[in-house]
Amino acid sequence: MANVAVIGSQWGDEGKGKIVDVLSSEAEVVVRFQGGHNAGHTLVIDGVTYKLHLLPSGIVRPGKLSVIGNGVVVDPHALLKEINTVKEQGLDINPDNLVLAENASLILSVHSIMDQAMEAARGKGKIGTTGRGIGLAYEDKVARRGIRVCDLESNDVLKEKLEKMLDHHNLLLKGWGADEVKVETLYDELMSVSDQILSYSGVAWKRLDEVHKAGKKILFEGAQGHFLDVDHGTYPFVTSSNTVAGAAAAGAGVGPSMVDYVLGITKAYTTRVGSGPFPTEQENDVGEQLGTRGHEFGTTTGRKRRCGWFDATLVRQAVKTGGISGIALTKLDVLDGFDELKICVAYEIDGERYDYLPSSMIKQANAKPIYETMPGWQETTYGARSYGDLPAAAVKYVKHIEELIEAPVALLSTSPERDDTILMQDLFLD
Ligand code: GDP
Ligand code: IMO
Ligand code: MG
Reduced to 3 DSSP states, what percent helix, strand and coil does the chain have, rounded to the nearest 5? Predict the structure, then answer.
């Protein structure tokens, strides 16, 4: 198998966790390279469900190495809690099968406090963040005042860095009339988990280099989706990292030529959690039907996901700007039983036709979808494991999506279960 980067091509929750799990049978390592515990990746294996937020999805397979790369922002308390949860489900997690990059940045309690306070202050213009402190931790990283995993190795360094960081945050908190955060509070919080976190800390890039030299394969597991990317997404309604495959190398500590194949995980319709433009959103019976059949509730926050028709214009843009080699089309089964299906093929914005989503916030908000309508199918595709089992109308739908997005469908997914997956194109050839 090639080294594959698995990334979301819409607004997240496309089924990345399931597909990484499917592909991880052929890989030695699964590495997360951006985002944090804002992600929620669901795996269903023989009826058992695992919900992962920070742990790479390869963690469920014995003998595989899981790496949390330097590009991830890590809440140490959330990580330990997640490790405990999956241990209770019977998984074995130890420093031999989980490496946390020593240069990954940490999310501290002050980050989530400020994330939530800033969202409250935005009022109607809120982004709808997960409130996990993701954006604040990335801000501190880029401003060069962040705390990293390796800073836990020295109590003196840690105290000094916390003081500098809080000089900044307390100024803001004071300005808002909120309580200041004490250095001792953050220091004690970190000390309570420091030994456990350090036991997983390692030189991630070296481990990946060794694996690569040994000819073994690496899966890069993206979080969020293309249109939540801080550059390529529907800014400012985005997350605070680059979610495109281009971020995989920098966020894992490998060269860009290490990624051989970019697999864009793509839902057969569209969903979004949180605020922001969504041209094909269906605030009607269709949206309700998609949400109910697709169980569209957030894995991380439990929020109801907004639902709408497939937007080929959006996914084609992700294919081009994200370098997507092929897609995995997921949740095709959710479309069973519709009389007709709509696909957005372009937008009309202020009287003009656009074959892409422009960057302007105003234009994005005004984008009206131009649809093509296709016949639906009444047969069930749920659990289908062969292309030949799909009704003719479903095959036509898949083929038309390929044409519109200008990329092949490499995999098809027809249920949450690992094995209900159809391999269309052999990614496994080097
Ligand atoms: P991720 O964040 O991209 O990993 O996706 P999530 O796990 O947040 O959301 C995808 C949801 O769809 C999960 O509940 C999966 O179990 C489920 N799922 C994945 N693939 C399929 C599929 O082909 N059909 C159905 N019905 N559900 C799926
Ligand atoms: P996975 O990996 C869907 C959304 C939030 C919000 C915006 C910014 O499961 O696909 P943040 O907390 O990151 O600052 O929130 O991004 N968001 C996601 N939406 N799936 C995700 O992850 C998401 N991670 C963040 O809802 O709109
Ligand atoms: Mg998710």
Answer: 40, 20, 40
- State the burial class of residue 409 (Cβ atoms within 10 Å of its Cβ: 0-12, 13-18, 19+): buried
pLDDT (0 to 100) of residue 1 = 73
Helix (H, G, I), strand (E, B) or coil at 270: strand
- Phi and psi at 334, nearest 5°, equal -65, -20
Question: Which residue's CA is the nearest one to ligand 1's atom 16?
Answer: 416
Token duo for residue 281: 């959103």
75 annotated active-site: no
pLDDT computed for residue 63 by the predictor: 94
The first and second tokens of residue 71, run together, are 């590009």
| Other Cβ atoms closer than 10 A to 191 | 13
- Answer for the pair 105, 141: CB distance below 8 angstroms, yes or no: yes
The answer to whether residues 270 and 309 touch, using CB atoms and an 8 Å cutoff, is yes
Confirm whether 41 is a catalytic residue.
yes
Whole-number pLDDT of residue 302: 86
- How far does the centroid of ligand 3 lie from the alpha carbon of residue 188, in Å? 32
Given a cut of 70, is residue 429 above it in pLDDT? no
Give the dihedral of Cα atoms 399, 401, 405, 409; nearest 10 deg: -60
Q: What is the pLDDT of residues 205-223, one digit of tens each?
A: 999 999 999 999 999 999 9
CB of 371 within 8 A of CB of 343? yes
Domains in the chain (CATH in brackets) are 4-101+201-261 (3.40.440.10), 105-195 (1.10.300.10), 266-423 (3.90.170.10)
| Closest residue CA from atom 6 of ligand 1 | 13
Please identify which of the residues 21, 37, 41, 115 carries the catalytic annotation: 41
Note the pLDDT tens digit of each residue in 40-86.
999 999 999 999 999 999 999 999 999 999 999 999 999 999 999 99
Specify the ligand 1 atom closest to the Cα of 415. Answer: 24
pLDDT value of position 428: 58
Q: Among all ligands shown, which has an atom nearest to the Cα of 301? A: 2
Q: Distance from CA of residue 10 to its chain's centroid?
A: 10
Label residue 230 left, alpha or beta by phi (over 0 means left) and psi (-120 to 50 means alpha): alpha
Average pLDDT score over residue span 311-319: 98
Nearest to 404 by CA among 326, 278, 311, 341: 311
Pocket test residue of 42, 390, 415 for ligand 1, highest count of atoms within 8 A of CB: 42
